[in-house]
Write a structure and sequence with these properties.
Length: 228
């Protein structure tokens, strides 16, 4: 019986641990399967993660043990170290391409089909956005016998051109919470951009004043300002 998120949804840390195992299997195969330490480092990356998390070794180990009971992770022991690998496509009953999309949604949060295609470049090269959408549609229309839908197409956010997709492996998505977080993020980005623009304008004004002073001391005409 494939994993059914409706009955046993993943926790946020379980999702991060599982998706990190899937990512490293694709992007750094020479280091895979992962030790616990390497896995924690991957979970806590500051790049390609949304949200950024601070997972402890204890939390990661607990998540691994829980994923193993769900047949989604496998422990590999040796005389030198214990390593872990994922069993996601088989454990959940989806093709590799679908597993890639689900892992990216777990790692990076809701994304458009175009963003998923770009972000999956190192994992799997989809021919075009239509092929990404085909696998997403298949995941959304997954039958009840197989465990039901694994993704949902979110309502279009204000000002957005395209709709974003979210995974359902951690249970139903709270659309209102996502919309609030998206608005807060947009507002924060806009504020940071305005601060940057103000700083650059002040720097340009200071440089113009310095150039004018140098030209006056040399007795030459300052350069004409460029046309707006």
């Amino acid at each position: 019986m494939p994993f059914d998120p409706r009955n046993t949804p993943l926790s946020a840390i379980e999702a991060r641990v599982l998706a990190t195992l899937m990512e490293k299997a694709r992007t750094v195969p020479d280091s895979y399967p992962l030790t616990l330490n390497s896995l924690v480092t991957g979970c806590n990356q500051k790049s390609s993660r949304d949200p950024v998390m601070e997972v402890s070794e204890g939390e990661a180990q607990e998540a691994l043990d829980s994923l193993r009971l769900k047949t989604l992770s496998v422990q590999i022991s040796s005389t030198r170290s214990t390593r872990w690998e994922h069993n996601f496509p088989r454990g959940i009953g989806v093709p590799d391409q679908s597993a890639v999309l689900l892992a990216l949604l777990m790692l990076r949060g809701p994304q458009t089909a175009g963003e998923l295609r770009i972000n999956s470049e190192r994992w799997h090269r989809f021919a075009d956005i239509s092929s990404v959408e085909a696998f997403l549609d298949e995941l959304q229309e997954r039958s009840e016998e197989k465990g039901g839908p694994l993704v949902v197409l979110l309502p279009r956010a204000p000002g957005a051109r395209e709709q974003r997709w979210a995974h359902l492996l951690c249970g139903p998505v709270d659309v209102s919470t996502l919309a609030t977080a998206s608005s807060a993020s947009t507002g924060s980005n806009a504020s940071a951009l305005q601060q940057r623009v103000d700083a650059l304008e002040a720097e340009v004004a200071q440089l113009n004043a310095t150039v004018k002073m140098l030209c006056e001391s040399l007795g030459v005409e300052p350069p004409a300002a460029p046309a707006a």
